[in-house]
């Protein structure tokens, strides 16, 4: 048995057993990323789609995703790869891309406005080894690296990103322990600690998906934005307030009222200089 130290779940795994993220497995007594190089999704996206509004705006970025996630959000918009119903089938449909090959693809799209590679779509930190190996080569080619993450990782995992990731969009899903523990299967303080450390070495923007009846109170947004503003340079950290649409296990709910999203964004603007609305 071996313990995975990547995130707060600290999964104890027997030989051949997968962690709750589905991406990490115990082999020969060592925890490894079983999704290393396994690309399920790839596209040349506008940088604003990550979303990053203040990092090379107007550029494009080669976006890649694998499979697995260490959260269990019932509203997941990419559940087909984050929580695949048939992992073996998904792996058969995927493409294995080495770090060198990925860097080469990124270079090929420079004429299209590409500035580098974004690790996104599923939770990229569950495949940390691939992210780090790719980032080193991508940087050697003079390109940028971006991480789109929920930030549910240990301090050691976050520190491993230092010098390897140029920009992050971190999903601060809510500002209540109830939401994280009962709805998402995570821990709010861990994400807050991750954000606090990340702003020390990377460009950081935050996202909050507004779900009716779950994290849409004015009081909670005021607390969230106030905390962000208390970080070093916090008033200038961009916050993306996004509209929810029914997905995955929350298809019985209607989308967030657009006026509610705008009102919450206005509350955040009392504390922050760069607040954006999305999906409206």
Q: What strand order characterises the main sheet?
A: 6-7-9-10-11-12-13-14
Number of domains: 1
Q: Helicity range of the residues?
A: 25-40%
Low-confidence runs = none
C-alpha-based Rg, rounded: 18 Å
Order of helices and strands: EEEEEEEHHEHEHEHEHHEHEHE
Mean model confidence by pLDDT: 97
Alpha-beta classification? alpha/beta
Gap between N and C termini: 48 Å
CATH class: Alpha Beta
How many H/I helices? 9
Describe this entry's structure for a reader.
- This protein is α/β, with parallel strands linked by helices and 280 residues long.
- It has a single domain (35-278), classed as Alpha-Beta Barrel (TIM Barrel), CATH 3.20.20.
- It has nine helices and 14 strands.
- It has helices spanning 79-82, 87-93, 99-108, 128-140, 155-160, 177-184, 188-198, 218-229, 258-268, and strands at 2-3, 12-13, 24-27, 30-33, 38-39, 41-46, 60-65, 95-96, 114-119, 144-149, 167-171, 203-210, 239-243, 275-278.
- The model has no long low-confidence stretch (mean pLDDT 97).
């Amino acid at each position: 048995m071996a313990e995975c130290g990547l995130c707060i779940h600290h999964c104890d795994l027997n030989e051949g057993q997968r962690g709750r993220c589905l991406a990490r497995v115990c082999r020969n007594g060592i925890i490894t990323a079983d999704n290393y190089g396994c690309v399920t999704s790839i596209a040349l996206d506008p940088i604003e789609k990550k979303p990053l509004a203040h990092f090379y705006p107007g550029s494009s970025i080669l976006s890649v995703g694998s499979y697995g996630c260490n959260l269990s959000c019932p509203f997941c918009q990419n559940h087909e790869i984050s929580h695949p119903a048939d992992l073996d089938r998904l792996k058969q449909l995927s493409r294995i891309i080495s770090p060198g090959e990925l860097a080469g693809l990124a270079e090929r799209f420079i004429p299209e406005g590409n500035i580098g590679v974004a690790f996104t779509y599923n939770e990229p930190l569950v495949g940390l080894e691939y992210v780090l190996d790719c980032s080193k080569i991508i940087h050697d080619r003079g390109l940028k690296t971006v991480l789109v993450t929920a930030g549910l990782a240990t301090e050691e995992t976050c520190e491993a990103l230092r010098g390897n990731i140029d920009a992050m969009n971190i999903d601060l899903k809510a500002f209540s322990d109830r939401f994280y523990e009962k709805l998402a299967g995570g821990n709010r303080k861990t994400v807050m600690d991750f954000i606090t450390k990340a702003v020390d070495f990377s460009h950081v923007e935050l996202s909050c998906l507004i779900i009716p009846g779950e994290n849409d109170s004015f009081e909670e947004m005021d607390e969230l934005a106030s905390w962000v503003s208390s970080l070093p340079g916090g008033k200038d950290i961009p916050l993306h307030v996004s509209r929810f649409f029914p997905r995955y296990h929350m298809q019985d709910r209607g989308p967030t009222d657009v006026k509610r999203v705008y009102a919450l964004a206005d509350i955040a603007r009392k504390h922050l200089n760069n607040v954006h609305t999305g999906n409206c």
